[in-house]
Write a structure and sequence with these properties.
single chain, about 300 residues, alpha+beta, five-stranded antiparallel sheet, four-stranded antiparallel sheet, 9 strands, about 15% strand, elongated
Amino acid sequence: MAGTDEDAVAAADDALYVLTAALLTPAKFPSVLGDDYPEACAALGLAPLADGYGLVLGQDGEGARWTVVIDDVSLVAVAIASWDCGMEYELSPDERTVVAALPGWPLAVAVAAPGVPAPHDPHPDADDRPPLTPPDTSVWGPAQRRLGADEIALQWGMWREQVDDSAFVAPAAPETGSPETRGDGSSAPSGEGSSEIPGDGGEAVGGPGGRGGAGQPRHSGIRRVLAEARTYIDSPPPLGRVRSSFAPGDARTLRADGPGWSLVARTDDIAFVLLDDEPGEVLPVGRGPELPGLLAALDKMAVRPN
């Protein structure tokens, strides 16, 4: 397993200033790392253990970036919950829980530890492995597509209000003057816990949902995504490829990913699709006659937080 070198662990544990943390579990993992839990673990050289891991990102006394992987998932979960509530919580992992110390950060971190040099990669003498780096958000690709889906799930209400439901039941006709669902970042605020979706500033291909009067998606990419998502019901995909989380009321927020696509939906509402080959575009999908059943079936087999 990568990152278990004792010297690297000792270097990272020596006066590690914790800046942030993340969960790496089947139900919740940084989506920039992969479309599913095993892929996310592989990106860090970790075995996909059923209970998952906690990722602690910080700097050592020299300012070097380190990602410390621990097996005390509950400790990290409590810390994140406390921080989300605006409470202070000192995250100090026990040495015995450390699984690996990896140079660099796989996620973008906007803060730095006070009183130490600015964040930088560890010196090769401390660890000669290539340091982890966040994805390049200036270009569109799988990681950016997944970050875009994260943003939609986080800011569902804002994205949902841009969609005119009447467009879903309009007679099939060439799209003219349809509302825009932009993916260029101008319609979504950026900041901690969210991300912009860069694009070319054009409107969503096919208009809202790209749907016709018969309730069938006209956009070939949407048809492919829905067809592949249906295959998950009978042939379960890798763990974490479909996840279900809390939503207001009796609904659930559903997240599904696949080769080149991401889908975000509310089980009582519509869905949004993002594609690798449609840079920056956010494609809404109306409920129609088939989407409710598909979402219900996916939610039934999805991984849920404990």
